[in-house]
Amino acid sequence: MKNQLSSWLFFRSYSVIAAGILIVALALDSLLLWLLPDNQQSSAERYSAEFAFIELILAGEGEEPGAVSRLFETMQPTLEEAAGVPVSLYEVAEMGDQQAFLTALRSGTVQTFIDGNSQEILYRMLPSGEQLIALGPLPAPPVSQASVETLVIVSYYLLVALLLFLWLRPFYRDLSALRHAASQFGRDDFETRVAVGSNSSILPVASSFNKMAERIQYLVTAHRDLTNAVAHELHTPLARFKFGLEMIPKMEAGERLTEHLNGMKSDVQELEELIDEMLTYARLSEDNLQLQLHTVRLNDWLKLQLAQYRDSQPPVLLNVKPEDDLTAVAFNPELLARAIHNIVRNCLRYAVTEVTVSCLIRAGEVKLCIFDDGPGIPEADWQRVFEPFARLDTSRDRQSGGYGLGLAIAKRILQRHGGDIHLAEHSPQGACFVLSWPYN
User: Fold this and answer.
1) In angstroms, how far is the first alpha carbon of the chain from the final one?
2) What is the pLDDT of residues 34-87, one digit of tens each?
3) Which residues does residue 90 pair with via DSSP β-bridges, in sequence order?
4) Starting at the edge strand that comes first in sequence, how are the strands of the sheet with 432-438 ordered?
5) Domain pair 202-289 / 291-438, same fold
6) CATH C-level class of 202-289
7) What distance in Å separates the CA atoms of residue 436 and residue 157, rounded to the nearest whole number?
8) 204, 205, 206, 212: CA torsion to nearest 10
């Protein structure tokens, strides 16, 4: 999904730039055609009618050069007025050694010559082959084609530059926001997030950064809370053990000393259990942890796990469907057994008459529900109960309330199976823990 989003944003950005450049090019091309509609014709083509008119007038005297020259001297003002440009008559002999130029003229074409003032002069040879008609210097057009083309080219590059600026400006702004957020995050401001628009080109990068920031913030916060909680939990048994060591020299050998030593042994055992619980929670938090899954019949396995509560008060009941007896599902039996026992024992502390375990297997998913009929858990605390060392009842001590890691470990185990655990409504009262995971 992330790769598809990145590809789509890249393709969209590329399409916008390509379409913008194409639109600019087409618009300026249309403008060029509008400004220079007549410049598609050369000067020779535009003055072809004038050459034909002059030749027609001079042809009345035949092809004898002297007669043509005399008629031209008489008609020159009239011809110039009709042509709108200066008209001149030259003898071929006056061209000297311009043989290439004369050869081109003898082919019947109009030849162009640019004089010293950069003005255009048109030449055409009369049918006699002895004389040339020259039109020009031609007047410069109001707007030269070269100037218009130069203006259009400059406008094209300016518009493309503007288009790129408009595209790069939000891109640079978003990159600056990302750089600032990374800088703030590096200064331990873990609340920093990158805010970009839904159409931003760096949206995938910003989303990845925000997810990374959330993950790091969670880990840092969890590490700090866990460190504080561990220090608190270790402080109590260590304080009792230290007090016990100080009291030993003051006691005489006997039953009281033995009882005191047994209490110190209990403190040591409590420390060992707490450390074991913390190591288990830390191991389940490792991202590279690989579970060994086994395929077992879940109903039979549940009956075996709950057999140890056969004589418990209140009783633990199992509610399964007969059609699921033959269904085999995959999971890690050791870890899942620990999760179930942690929850069942939690429910037994508060149940009034019974604890019930039900199982539902549907469409590749297993759903276990463990609920009691005790006072229940306020909905506002449904998420907090799964946090390490969380205790809703502050009056509970280690004998009744454990270490506050049981539910946190159970949640980690379900997450390692690709599932989750949450609390749900239970009528008329009590807590309902729902464990679900995909088994195929």
Assistant:
1) 23
2) 766 554 567 888 888 888 888 888 876 666 878 888 888 888 888 888 888 999
3) 132
4) 316-319, 355-362, 365-372, 432-438, 420-424
5) no
6) mainly alpha
7) 62
8) 110
HEC assignment per residue over 37-66: CCCCCCHHHHCHHHHHHHHHHHHHHCCCHH
Burial string for 124-150 (b: 16+ CB within 10 Å, else e) reads bbbeeeebbbbbbbbeeeeeeeeebee
Helix then strand then coil, % of the chain, to nearest 5: 60, 15, 30
Give the pLDDT of residue 398. Answer: 41
β-sheet bridge partners, residue 89: 133
* Residue 122 structure tokens: 């048109």
343, 346, 350, 352: CA torsion to nearest 10: 50
Domain boundaries, the chain: 43-135, 202-289, 291-438
Question: pLDDT per residue over 253-290, tens digit each?
Answer: 776 777 777 777 877 877 777 777 777 777 776 666 67
User: In what helix (H) or strand (E) does residue 82 lie, and over which residues does it extend?
Assistant: helix 65-83
CATH of domain 291-438: 3.30.565.10
Instruction: Region of 418 please: left (phi>0), alpha (psi -120 to 50) or beta.
Output: left
**Kind plus residue range of the DSSP H or E element containing 410:** helix 406-416
Q: Which residue is listed with tokens 């082919």?
A: 107
User: With contact defined as beta carbons under 8 Å apart, do 335 and 413 qualify?
Assistant: yes
For 13, 14, 168, 173, 376, the CA distances from 200, given in Å and listed in that order, are 10, 13, 11, 10, 47
Please provide residue 269's backbone torsions phi and psi, each rounded to the nearest 5 degrees: -65, -35
